[in-house]
Structure to design on (159 residues):
């Protein structure tokens, strides 16, 4: 067995070393996504959620797919809504949405453009919540995530 390892391991290292050599021509700039969320949102008020998609200095006008996933932190991501964004020009994609309940929400954009998938997440507050209420909601969320991680053992999360 040791003789086999002495032959196979160096061969694999040589193979990996040869195939991972960087090819300067294939280095491309990453697609960047900058979300713009409205402030002071009231319950049941329709608002516009936007994202600017760029690659280097260029605005991306040809994204394959831009979606917004929105969920109330207290209700959990499993109760999220997934909305298709509309391209409005100048690298901007947007969606209109109204939030039924006051609370802390997460907005995650799913952008597929130029063979890349980018998924930044931002937080927003809907309705009149004090900082104490916001902190309490986020503390409960962190606590629940901790318990979920303990329940999962080391299976990890699959996306």
């Amino acid at each position: 067995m040791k003789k086999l390892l002495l032959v196979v391991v160096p061969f694999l290292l040589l193979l990996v070393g040869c195939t991972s050599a960087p090819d300067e021509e294939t280095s491309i700039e990453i697609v960047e996504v900058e979300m713009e969320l409205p402030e002071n949102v009231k319950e049941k008020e329709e608002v516009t959620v936007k994202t600017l998609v760029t690659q280097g200095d260029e605005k991306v006008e040809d994204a394959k797919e831009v979606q917004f996933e929105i969920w109330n932190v207290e209700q959990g991501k499993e109760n999220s809504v997934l909305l298709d964004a509309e391209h409005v020009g100048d690298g901007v994609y947007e969606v209109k949405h109204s939030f039924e309940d006051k609370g802390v929400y997460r907005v995650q954009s799913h952008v597929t453009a130029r063979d890349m998938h980018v998924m930044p997440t931002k937080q927003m507050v809907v309705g009149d919540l004090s900082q104490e209420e916001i902190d309490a909601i986020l503390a409960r969320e962190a606590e629940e995530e901790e318990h979920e991680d303990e329940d999962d053992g080391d299976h990890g999360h699959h996306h």
